[in-house]
Amino acid sequence: MHSDHTTRPPTTRAVELHHPTPLPTTAPASVAVPTVASIVLPDGRVVTGYAISPMQPEPLAAKPPVSRAAVNVALGGVGFLAVSGGLLLLTSFIAALAALVAQLVTLAAVIFGGWIAVQVFSASGHRGGTTVNIRKAVIKRSHFHG
Prior knowledge:
two-stranded antiparallel sheet; alpha+beta; 1 helix
């Protein structure tokens, strides 16, 4: 590590002087001439210039009053649109629910019909009765319906 123990010469700042330009004295009487102000900064510099008052915004124009009838008509229109949209969604939901129920009924009919068909076609192989296995002996019983 290298440390610098040399002394440096003091730094000097160049001071610039600005003189305000005076306003011409031939200005009309309706024009107010601002006064020149000087301010001393903490480091000793002096700032001189014209004091400028902040600009005032233009006053807002008064809004015309809104009639109660116009407000009621607007709110009624918004309410009508909301109710109409809700009814449209409700009818769409009911139609979709009806289609779902119809499909579930059709599916149940197909499944139940298939079960019936399996029962009918599988029973045709057992003509004449029920087969019971008792100690490896096959006994056939006949059922008479009459």
